[in-house]
Every structure is written in C-alpha cells, then in structure tokens.
Amino acid sequence: MVATARKNRGPVVDCDIHNAVWPGALDPYLAKRWRRHGQLFGSRTHPGSLYPKGSPAAARHDAWPPSGRPPGGDLEFMRKQHLDPEGIEYGILNCLGPAGTQLNAEYSSALCRAVNEWQIAEWLEKEPRLRAGVAVPYEDAELAVKEIDRFADHPGFVQVLLIVRTAEPLGRRKYWKIYEAAERNNLPVGIHFGGGARGVPITASGWPSYYIEDHTDMAQAFQAHVVSLVCEGVFERFPGLRVVLIEGGFAWLPSLMWRLDKHWKRLKEEVPHLKRRPSDYIREHMWVTTQPIEEPHNPRHLLQVLDHLGGSDRVMFSTDYPHWDYDDPDRAFRVRLPEEDRRRIFAGNAKALYGLR
Amino acid sequence: MVATARKNRGPVVDCDIHNAVWPGALDPYLAKRWRRHGQLFGSRTHPGSLYPKGSPAAARHDAWPPSGRPPGGDLEFMRKQHLDPEGIEYGILNCLGPAGTQLNAEYSSALCRAVNEWQIAEWLEKEPRLRAGVAVPYEDAELAVKEIDRFADHPGFVQVLLIVRTAEPLGRRKYWKIYEAAERNNLPVGIHFGGGARGVPITASGWPSYYIEDHTDMAQAFQAHVVSLVCEGVFERFPGLRVVLIEGGFAWLPSLMWRLDKHWKRLKEEVPHLKRRPSDYIREHMWVTTQPIEEPHNPRHLLQVLDHLGGSDRVMFSTDYPHWDYDDPDRAFRVRLPEEDRRRIFAGNAKALYGLR
C-alpha cells in the first residue's frame, strides 16, 4: 500500500526534517570551557512559542524511538519510520534548538559549531539522502559568518539556517553580513518557524493566550521578514541571494505581494533603492515550503492560490517530520495537482535550489 | 463625467471617512480640569506608525480645506470634495486621534466623551448622511462601557470604534466588557488601522525601518485579533457580537481561515469552549472594509478571493477619505464585479449591518 502510493507519487524531496540533539550529543564537539559553561549556567534564551505539554518535543506520539533518544534523534529509526517508507529521495535537516539564539554570543557560536560538526559526523556522513542547514549564531552576524565559512565547503550543507522570530526584521543591516557570506558560498538562507525574538511579542498587539494562536500567528513573522528583506533592498545588494521560508505556509503570500506592490506604487520615493516592484524580488529570490499546508474549504482553491503566486516553481514540499503537525506526502494535497506542478513541488524545485543530483 | 460614473454605480456607503478634530474643537466639551490638564501635560501615548513627513495628517494633498482647518476637519469642504461628487449615500465617520489611547485613563475617558459630543454637535446633527463610531478609552473596559452606554442611544452612532494596535490581543478578557456593552446596545465593534499598542513592536521580530513596511505590516495586527477573538471564545460568549475590520484589506483572510481551521482540527482540546470551526465564527461575526484594497496582478483573481471568502456578503466598500491612500469608488475594483456583489459591497452589506435606511 505504502509502496504503491510511493511509486505513483515518484520521488520526494522533504525540505523540512528535524534531527534532534540527544543529551550529551554535543559534548565531544565542545571545548571543555563551554561544556563547563553549559553545566553551570545552561541555556539562556528568550522562550518563544512553547509547545503544549501533551506533545513533548512537539512530536508525533509514534515518533519516539525505542532507543530512548528524543524524536528525530535516532537516524536508524528515522530511516525506518520516514525515509524508507515515504520514499524520501533527499531530506533537508533543519536542526532546531537553542544553539543559535543564546544570549551569550560566544556560547551560541560554540554551540552552533558543535551542532554542525555533530551533524557531519552523525547524519551527513552516515546517510547519503540527508542534507543540512548550517546552524549559526544569527543575532551576531560576524560570528555567524565564521560558521558559514567554516562549513560551507562540506557538500552536506546546502543552506544557512535562521529562525523566524529574530530580534529585528531580517532585512535590517545587522544581518547583512550573513547574506554576503551565504551569497558568496552559494547557499540559500532558510528561515524556519520558531524562536524567541529576544522577547518581542508574536503579535502587533502583545501576547496571545493560547498555543493555537501562537502557532497560527507565526505566519505573521514570515510576512514581516518578506516585507523587510524586500524593502531594505537586500536583494538589490545581494542579487544572488535566495531565501527559503520554511514551515510558514504560503497561501498568505499572494495577498502580501499585492498589498506591498500597491503601497510601493505610492511610496516608492521612500525606498528609491528598489528598482523593481516588491513582488518581482519575491518571485525571483524567495522559495516556500508547504507544511503546514493551508487546506481551503474547497480543495480546488489551492490551485488558484498557486496561480496567484505566479506558478508552482517556488513551492517545495515538506513534512516537518517528526513533529505533531506533520504533513503526509500522500495526503497533504487534497486536490490533484497537474503533473508538472506535482513534480516540481515534490522534488524538482528543491533539487534545483539545493543542487541535489 | 463624475455624475455619469456615479449614476452607473448606484449608491455608495463609504465605511471609512475620517473627520478630524481641529485645534480647540474639544474645549467646549471638556471640563476645566481636563482642559487645564491638556494645556499643561498634553497627550501622552505610545506613538504608533508615524506618517511620513511629506504627507502631513496622512492626507491627500488636495484635501486641505481653504478654511485652514485640517483635512477632514471642515464639513462643508467634505461635502463638496467627497460626499456630493462621489454620491455617498451614507458615510461612516471613524474619528482617529489620541483620545482613546491616552496612558492616563481618566483623561482618555474625558477626551472620548468630548469627541463624541463634538461629533454629535458638529457632524451628526449637521449632516444626515453621516454616522459615527463611539470613541472609547479602549484600554480600560469599564470606562469604555460608560461611554458606550452614554452615547449608544443617539441614532447617529452606529458602532463602537477601537484601534487595531491595542496593548493586548482583543480576544483577551480585559476587553470583554466592551463586547458585552456593544452587544447589549446592538452596536458592531469596528477595529481600525493604527494605534501604538503601548509600545509593542508591529512585527513578531521587532521594529521595521520604513513607513511602507509599517503600513504593509498593519494587516498582521488585524490577523492577530481575528485569531484572538475566535480562539478566546468571544463569539460563544457574545453571540450577538459583530466585528468590523476597517482599513486592513481582506485578501489575507481566506488563508488565515484555512490555517486556523487546520490547526483547530488537531488542537481543539486546548480550546474546548469553541463549538464550531474557527472559520464559522469568522464568517458569521466578522465584516471587512475594502480599502486599501488588494490589487492582484491579474484583476480577475480578486473575484476568486471573494469566492475563497465564501462570498461577498461581509465585504463593505470604504475610501479612507481624506487620507493619502484613498480608494476611489470608480477605480478601486479593477475587475467588473457581478451586479449582485457590486450592490452588496458598495451599499447593501453596510446598510444591513449598520441599520441604515
């Protein structure tokens, strides 16, 4: 049954898989000074969207490996539960966790380096289907650049990984050195759901009461970065930069392009560094992953949304394995995609973007 | 030419006109104690989205009345420039300004009362086409209720007016007494673009650099309130409550309904007070005004957006006169609307909602 579905579907590139750091995993890659720091002071970050107690590690209930490691923390189990049965030709690992967002920038840097070395040793060199994002201490661009330059040459790293709830909108100058390094190393910049934003509330009117709100409102953080990256002229400054919005959905993007283009027509004198319509930059420089895919009440409306986006060439399938809101490759789309769109979304776009062969 | 356009178009209800308080206008309606307070201490609020220097009062350059009053501050000029030539059958006044958002709650209360009395004397009793929203000190629900109950009986007041950048998401309990009073008085609650949110940044990742960003990101504040009002169960608690989203656009609403419904299916145990799908509450209890209307690259896609919304019965035309980003009734829709939709959007929906005859 699974094999049939897989065969009908063709190859899948899963653009959002989470590998988890198990307890002690980073110790071999941390200097004694930072191991000691972790033991004494631990992680110090601003908490973001806290996952519900009933879903520890935000995981599917069936995703806890028998080995006792956390969900996403056991490669053999990941192969058996996800990569093999779902026919994943390539999977992009986005290792979440507190490494990149530590308030102590040097500790953040040391943790990111350890995460990256651990990813090489425990994932990329053990499983040829996997690729990964370079973890970086993203609130300090100079330190982030060091990690990018350190790991960009390893063929397993295919993007630079940022988290969407940053301290400032991502178009601002404090982040530009990251884009310079990503462009120079020919790596897309992935921006993933989550993060603590150094205490900035997730809505324009403060903190919501419920997790379901936090989870829904996260799309707004993506919207703000799209607006910021475009309006600050980041794509004029770094014309080779490619940005991937991961786990933000995408059905909100057409209306944002329309709104921004409309305002730009009347306000372009404020942003004379923009040489083209805002939506032109978005269409050229931005990719989106599908999960959590929006589910129109009339499933055929999703085809209209793809049309509003200008086509399917920037949309890439993702599951979010092993998290609770996983999208199944066979069921995520409730409408029959035209064959060419299907091939692009499930594999072609990601292969082209990430250089997968 | 204008007359022809108007005739072809039929009657228009403009759901967003801004009347402006001219210097000294409120003095006759303020107790000496508060006039003195204003002279000595002035307005103390958190600034929100600051309008560009080149557009004082955020106004169209041609909207400055010869009388020297601010744009929107001269009824006779408003009649000549807007109400008469555009064939406005009814216009809903949303008086912006610092009255409702003063940090000093009692001063806020006094200013709102003065604004409301001034609106009766200078606008509602002088021009039968105009209706208004009750200004309220919205961060203190008990004081807001006093203003609602004081003015609700006047036939010129047709809604309670809030600003979108509040200190907390509007579903939270601190605002519930406002909804109880609005429901009891059979007044919709309008939520208008703007405000300072007591210092909360407008994005989930801090402050953007440009006005065009602020202006575009404001849609996110509306999104957060939709999510909050639904998830907190406000519409279960106040089943007669009607909410109008003013100057937030609307093309983003379908994707938000889809996203929220999808999350609710898996997270409904967190919000057991919800008896129906989130989108069911939105469809039943929420209205939107059109300006700044999103302009799809292919104008026909706007008809698909209306379809995604579930129809045109909650969409109400607005111009935002006299502000710079005014939508012209003859040019706002770049696609020919089916006749029934046109009549609803330009007049019927607003007449039904606000009880205009």
Kindly describe this structure.
The structure is a homodimer of 357-residue chains. Chain A is an alpha/beta fold. Chain A has one domain: TIM Barrel (Alpha-Beta Barrel), CATH 3.20.20.140. Chain A is 39% helix and 11% strand. Chain A is built from 12 helices and 8 strands. Chain A has helices at 2-9, 32-41, 75-83, 105-124, 141-151, 176-184, 211-231, 234-237, 253-267, 278-285, 301-308, 339-354; strands spanning 12-17, 88-93, 130-135, 157-163, 189-192, 243-246, 286-289, 315-316. Chain A has an 8-stranded parallel sheet, with helices on both faces. In chain A, strand 2, helix 4 and strand 3 (130-135) form a beta-alpha-beta unit. The two termini of chain A are 28 Å apart. The interface between A and B is large, with 74 and 74 residues.
Primary descriptors:
homodimer; eight-stranded parallel sheet; alpha/beta; 357 residues
What's the pLDDT, averaged over the residues of chain A?
94
How many β-strands of chain A, per DSSP?
8
Number of helices of chain A: 12
Structural class of chain A: alpha/beta
Q: Would you identify the CATH architecture of chain A? A: Alpha-Beta Barrel
Total count of domains of chain A: 1
Largest interface: A-B, 74 and 74 residues
Strand content of chain A: 5-15%
Order of strands across the biggest sheet of chain A? 1-2-3-4-5-6-7-8
Instruction: Tell me which oligomeric state these chains represent.
Output: homodimer
Q: Which shape of chain A, going by the Cα principal axes?
A: globular
Spatial separation of the terminal alpha carbons of chain A: 28 Å
